[in-house]
User: Fold these one by one.
Assistant:
Number 1:
Amino acid sequence: MSAAVIVDAVRTPLAKGKPGGAYADIHPVDLHAAALRALVDRTGIDPVVIDDVISGAVGQVGEQAGNTARWALLAAGYPESVPGVTVDRQCGSSQQALHFAAQGVIAGAYDVAVASGVESMSRIPIGSQFQGKDFFGPQVGARYGGGLVPQGISAELIAQKWDLSRAQLDEYSAMSHERAARAWKDGLLDSQVTFVNDLRTDETIRPGTSVETLAGLRPAFRNDDWAAAYPTIDWRVTAGNSSPVNDGSAAVLVTSDEAAARLGLKPRARVHSFAVVGDDPILMLTGIIPATKKVLDRAGLSLGDIDAFEVNEAFASVVLAWQAETGADLAKVNVNGGAIAIGHPLGASGARLATSLLNVLEQQDGRFGLQVMCEAGGLANATIIERI
């Protein structure tokens, strides 16, 4: 059985996902192509040997519809013989793409695969694919008694359940900005990015963000209807302790160890273990807790064996609840900043986390890294990579 190894990983800087953002005038196919092209340029691999490009995208409508992976690889100059497929596991889409690529290599179905992702939230606003429709269906609605809620309400319910104060949420968020700003200043992110247009940093990082500044923001998800439905919530989640909307792409080159040797490629890590779980769709974002346990159990590792964590910062409450349950050391979590500062371009975030994790392990001479992603519907992906 072949090992699945990571040869390289690259991302674009992340832009504001709204009109006026640095990538607002770039078609998502072309934005996606930037990461795919960079992967070939950086490794020198002949793209004709790529067996499949597996990509994540959440807003699969409009300019991101019609299997965007196929059009992006052609836009990147890959040969017409290279196939592509687009998957949707919501925010974990490109992390699931990485799992599929690794599984294909381990099974012997692939020698070389690319896992990637894209989201242009400026051109395909969040929720565009739903078009105002009830996508749950009547039977799911009946099962949960009408209790299914938007993610912002889930984030509030998590803060309430784990008794996370507004100050704790804001303190964590300020730390995310401080870490990200420092990482760019110290050049720690330069090696993992391919620049697009004139953007030379992640556009939503706010250097100097303070707890005092964040404390002045209003709750983002409170309205009269939700306040009536949940009278015990004291409304702690704001735009400042939530991830922003973003545009960006990322890509990871995965091969078998035999193919890497044959092609003269030097692996940087191997995909050690992976897991996916389902969890409560009302709390929704807590799946990262059982996913962490499941992937560690599968790997035969303990939390203490992990040198670095990438936990997607959809909301500060999600990361802090995960930390409270796992006991992980926050000094090892998102050490170069997380999505609250860097950004969360939905379909690209899983591959972005993998790119960040790989680089942190190398910078810190670590061995094992774990990334975990909360996803709509009460899902979560977890991945452990081992630096070579």
Number 2:
Amino acid sequence: MKVLVVGGGGREHALVWKIAQSPLVTKVFCAPGNPGIGELAENLPIRVDELDKLLAFARSEGIGLTVVGPEQPLSLGIVDLFEEHGLKVFGPRKNAAIIEASKAFSKDLMQKYGVPTAAYGVFTEVGPAEAFIDRTGVPIVVKADGLAAGKGVIIAQTRDEAVEAVRDMLSGNAFGSAGSRVVIEEFLTGEEASFLAITDGTNIIPLASAQDHKAVFDGDKGPNTGGMGAYSPAPVVTQAVHDTAMAEVLRRTVDGMAAEGRPYRGVLYAGLMVKDGRVKTLEFNARFGDPECQPLLMRMKSDIVPVLMAVAEGNLAGRSIEWHDKAAVCVVMASEGYPGDYRKGDAISGLDKAAELDDMVVFHAGTAAKDGACVTSGGRVLGVTALGATVQQAIERAYQGVGRITWQGVQYRTDIGKKALNRG
């Protein structure tokens, strides 16, 4: 079977890496891919939003399964389009991908179906938003309603900061049309966890627990990013937390989406805040997290392809996923200035030295080929991911890999995974 993966970042490199291991797969294509992916699959010069071109390729090449990585093509309706032409595709349809494409929709859904979440308000005008901020107090969270590449969230520490964020978003300065409506939420304290599950709209298979590191600097300081690193398993997700998340978050959401006439198939990612064993839902994503996907797929023992195909066919019943006992840690190496403006085109050295390490994969995120060299082309450039018998060992191995790679202006956090160790 031939498989097409849509996307070109670290998540898609991890998916291609895992899918290519399946004995069911004869060839993997990736659109648009990146230099790292190109070592495992054939890259295609097709952007993720060129749905008609992706469809034409899938039909002409006889693609048996298409796996959609990023949120943009999902929200544009790539799954609907492929299914209308009789093609097997993994991911939610457009009317279900709205769970990520509109934060207002997802908050309203959670409220309606009893999914625990923060108190909130949805606003299109500054005046009522200011009144809500005054009633709720600070710190407070201001979110762009639409897709903003994981960065449309401002945690405002002062009233002025909150009001400025609202004005910026509603005026279109900060996130364009994604911010034409804002969601303002009470600030939750606790420890964040990423809880992902694969579902066919009825049956739900939870993935291993993981924890992302959103802030750009050590100690969770600085602005939010798409993610500066992740590890799995996450000790904050105890068995009790897992059971609560499955029953009160995943089950209620999947059933609620079905009741709304928006059956959800694909990966459902719940960002959770855990405090004293209690769980509240921060947000939903309609796809594998990035960088959570990288350590999760490193730990996945099972062949992923039968599971992806079962979802595409709408029949996940009786399926299960096995996991390695080992821990995995992914450290994101980013360009100087990220998540703000950053340079591109800096030559990356040391990739061959990192590749010599055991139980290590360097997933490419924002890279390009130039004059025979691998150069930076994005904010998040690489995801150095390692396995270890313990989280501590996986951390040490990942940073050993990081230490072998460099380019001008490279930045990364030095504390990825420390929360797992600090729990004692």
